[in-house]
Please model this.
Amino acid sequence: MQCIIVKKIYNFFVKFLNFMYNILMDNKHHIDIIRGKYKNIRLKISNNGEISLYAPKSLSNEKIIDFIKAKRKWIEKHIEKIDNMNKVKSTYDFENYGYIFNNAMPFGNIKKDTFYRNAFLNYIKPMVHELSIRCNLYYTSLSIVNSKRVWGSLDSNKRMKLNWKIVILPKELIVYIIIHELCHSQEFNHSKYFWSLVGQYIPNYKEIKEELKKFSFLLTSKIL
Ligand SMILES: [Zn+2]
Model:
């Protein structure tokens, strides 16, 4: 009997604490507090936006509250990123459509990989050529790569590699990626000078860089 009462009181406090934590987050996001045999305090945000906080049993509630306060901005940024990604994700139907510059086109009788390879050769290759001339920035060769990490690269021999998935992106993001790589022909590192060079061609490159982040899930998703 005593045990049940203790348990009830304990549960009440756990509920109360969770209530407090969520007030801290302006009730915007619910955080599940999980106490256990953990060495450190740790936050995990799943792809569907669920937030879990793992904390050692001995850690005081004040410390947990301080931790959430300190991480609040990070949590909000992360959740925003997931929301953006899900918004973009839900607008694509990669099974039935190929995407060129963000426009859906039915595959018809063409195989998916041929569709995207053709799109790359027909749209991206001429675009690289044209932008190179227009910006007076040169490259020696262009090849298509299938990278899970980057959209493009330019090595010290000015050989440009572009991820075939850039075909799918909105046009202004493709232009940004190409000009970014072309600027590496002048400056190898992401120095201040490099960004001032990018800014000469794309004054709002900071916004575009942010926009591109929404599409970064494409790099790792299997769409072929
Ligand atoms: Zn770069």
